[in-house]
Request: fold
Amino acid sequence: MSERVALYLQDAHDLRDGLEYVKYAEKRGFEAVWQAESRLVRDAIVPMAAYAAVTERIKVGSGVINNWTRNIGLLAATFLTLDDLAPNRIICGIGAWWDPLARNVGIERRKPLTAMRETVIVLRRLLNMERVTFHGEFVHVEGIELDVVHGRREPRNVPIMIGATGDQMMELTGEIADGAVLNYCVPPEYNIRALELLEKGAKKAGRTLDDLDRPQLVVCSVDHDREKAIDTTRELLTQYLAQQPHIAKASGVSSDVVAEIQSILGWPATHEQIQKAKHLVPEELIHRITASGTPEEARAKVNEYRKYGCTCPILYPVGGDVNLLIDTFAQQ
Reply:
């Protein structure tokens, strides 16, 4: 039986190259492609539409958009439109965002759990083609529905997956979402606690852990030259630990290391700053929280995440030969 596997694309390649990677991943039996939306780089929706337009079977997910910057009506209309382009192939991955980025663009992320709950409830009802009135703390809609002039009027099958990091968000995900997009840059055993929390939330809704899909982002640097693969990952981790300290905390990285890296890196970090700080990232950490090295080493590490409850690894090629990564995990 073939194993589920997906590709994660962010911003380190030409967009048109991305279309070729996605077509190749589809050809080699990948189940899905997820498009990142993180710093102020690429938005997720434009590439998702492009991937959907040039493929026929592969699923296309947002990995992840935030629940603050798109009005709920626009959010629902966006995923309706994507589903028109690729029926039953679209996945909505959504997350609570992070500071300082949110704060720096004028968003005050208060009560993230309430905000997420309201977003998911109303988004699901709208995609179910219901007429919705809802007055929450963050979402206020009065008698709205998606207006289909051309196309299918039936409810849309767009799974809503939450990219949860904190314990309470993970539990909420188990209660209200179709699944969790589990984090990257964490060791495989991070999933033990994550699955406990998902199950706790699922029980509240009369569901079990098996009702929840659990794809997981995995940083994956594959090269026949092992040292080259590891060095590529080291550069990514240098930037990541500095800019998203909540992930560093989840990874068990010492706050001293994070503070030292942060003291060297600016925002956005320059190539020179990353080169200067990268020696601070220990090799042991690279092997603990990423799948980096030769194809054999990468496959072995990804299987560890599967053993700990990841249902579909979403492989993030941090550099090098993307086609080699696809070939390494090809299912056909």
Notes: The CA atoms of residues 118 and 237 lie 33 Å apart. Residues 225-291 form one domain. The chain has a mean pLDDT of 94.
